[in-house]
Amino acid sequence: MADQIVTVFDRCFAAPGGLNTRLAGGFDEPYYRPAGGQSGFHQVEFTRDYPASALHEAAHWCVAGAERRQQPDYGYWYAPDGRSAEQQAEFERVEVKPQALEWIFSVACGMRFRVSADNLDAGLGPSDRFKRNIWLQVLRYCEQGANERASRFARALAVHFGRGDPFRIDCYHLEDLG
User: Fold this and answer.
1) Fewer CB atoms inside 10 A, N or C side of the chain?
2) Cα(2)–Cα(52) distance, rounded to whole angstroms?
3) Edge-to-edge strand order for the sheet containing 21-27?
4) What is the C-alpha to C-alpha distance for residues 9 and 54, in angstroms, rounded to an integer?
5) Taking a C-beta distance cutoff of 8 angstroms, is the pair 22, 69 a contact?
6) Cross-referenced Pfam families, in alphabetical order (predicted)?
7) pTM beyond 0.85, yes or no
């Protein structure tokens, strides 16, 4: 399924006039590489062949503004697994929008979405507040719209996978986040 997600992303964004960006799997860690070198393409890299990683990294790319997309890994901080409670709270604050988009992309593909706290070593799973904030952000995207890149990708995924409109509020329930 990851290869199909790559195909849809590249069709949306790698073509001329499509922001010169490709999605690529097969990496040990996700990373964003702005254009440079021989390829001339920006590259959104996801872990191995994991569809959820592909959708999550595409969501980060959709959230990042034009200036951030010129910086390696968007210029964001990242504390690895084993974060303190304070670092985890900051992680949850900055991850609401990407994870909300990932949920929308997952619905567009017919995949189950799982909230990621990305902090297994510390034993800190996603907080109830984090789950609620993701759900509320999804509802905002459904009611007010997401940015053009996110909307374009979500709708292209839905067409490719034969799914309905991924911006229907009735597709999203807080209790589905466990």
Assistant:
1) C
2) 8
3) 21-27, 42-47, 31-33
4) 10
5) no
6) EpmC
7) yes
Domain boundaries, the chain: 2-177
110-169: pLDDT as tens digits: 999 999 876 555 556 788 999 999 999 999 999 999 999 999 999 999 999 999 999 999
β-pair partners for 42: 21
Exposure pattern of 116-148 as b/e (b: 16+ CB <10 Å)? bbbbeeeebebeeebbebbbebbeebbeeebee
List, in order, residues 6 or more apart from 51 with CB less than 8 Å away.
1, 2, 5, 109, 111
CA-CA-CA-CA torsion for 155, 95, 138, 176, nearest 10 degrees?
Answer: 100
Tokens, residue 134: 């993701």
Residue with tokens 């619905």: 107
Q: Pairing state of beta strands 31-33 and 42-47?
A: antiparallel
**Could you give the count of Cα atoms lying within 13 Å of 152 in the half-sphere of its Cβ?**
14
